[in-house]
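Action item from last week, closing it out:
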Amino acid sequence: MVVANAGIVDQIARADRLSTDGWRKEVEVNLSGAYYTIRPALAGMRERLGGRVIVTSSVAAMIGVGGQVAYAATKAGLLGLVRSLAIE
């Protein structure tokens, strides 16, 4: 089993005011961080023909949050990540 639970919501700003660095920071921690956590476990899961991946997302993935476009986008990205992993 692997658990990806790290996340930040550092960039509180409307989308038109969010800096490129702010966007990148949240994507790197919230979305890429989950991938980097999960990836090393995948080979063993394939060998065992199964396993468990637990990823913490947010209601923001489904409904969005004003002033938190990067956070909501990364949490929605996690849903796509785990759904794709389940198919694989």
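Closing note: The radius of gyration is 14 Å.
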